[in-house]
Design a protein that fits this description.
Radius of gyration: 34 Å
Structural class: alpha/beta
Order of helices and strands: HEEEEHEHEHEEH
Shape: elongated
Number of helices: 5
Helix content: 40-55%
Distance between the termini: 111 Å
Number of strands: 8
Length: 218
């Protein structure tokens, strides 16, 4: 009997502890959940801010936060893809890039349905007639895949463009070979026939000067 009383005294405190502990867990669980939720939320917000900063940070060499300007290209340092395309002026006379070997060349990809192309057209003509032609730089416009050649011809006449323009193939293979991301886009080729720069978006006077330096044209 004495052993039994001792056993009861030992067991009761354990039962008491067991009865109190669940209450403590119930009281502390919501707090723990709130803490965990808060920590996870802070981590998620931090990750979103970090990823957002990566997306909004301009690429190296880019002039604006929108990703336009001087851009990288897999073609940089490589021979420019050759092409033979018909001149827009008559729709049939072939023009080949290889015929300008030994001369620096600028290729401008555009489309008559592209508003930024229309916005830069007057500037490109001004660059050509006021500086590039005198420096011995060949400037060629490449009209992308359009419904008809007449659309490109009307565009050239509307903006009084005098440098040569050609019509890309029906499937736009020349633009594909150069890896253009959209119109307008301009590639700069040095006298050795290597691509030295790529400009995405309307070409500015400052951008032109930057890229001409890479072509070793002053």
């Amino acid at each position: 009997m004495e052993l039994q009383s001792i056993t009861d005294e030992q067991v009761q405190p354990l039962e008491a502890v067991g009865s109190i502990e669940p209450a403590r867990i119930k009281k502390s669980s919501p707090k723990r959940r709130i803490i965990i939720f808060t920590v996870v939320s802070i981590i998620n917000v931090a990750l979103l801010v970090f990823l957002g900063s990566l997306l909004l940070t301009p690429k190296e060499g880019s002039n604006t936060s929108s990703g336009l300007g001087d851009m990288s290209s897999p073609l940089l340092g490589k021979a420019a893809p050759d092409f033979t395309l018909p001149l827009l002026s008559d729709g049939k006379t072939p023009l080949s890039l290889s015929s300008f070997k030994g001369k620096p060349v600028i290729l401008n990809f555009w489309s008559s349905t592209c508003p930024p192309c229309a916005a830069e057209a007057a500037d490109l003509q001004s660059f050509w007639s006021g500086k590039l032609q005198a420096q011995g730089v060949t400037f060629i416009g490449i009209d992308g895949a359009e419904k008809s050649m007449s659309d490109g011809q009307a565009f050239v006449q509307r903006y009084h463009v005098t440098y040569p323009n050609v019509k890309d193939t029906f499937d736009g293979s020349t633009g594909i070979n150069y890896g253009i991301a959209g119109n307008p886009e301009t590639y700069f080729i040095d006298a050795q026939g290597h691509v030295v720069a790529r400009w995405l978006g309307p070409l500015t006077a400052e951008g032109l000067q930057t890229e001409l330096a890479k072509m070793q044209v002053k």
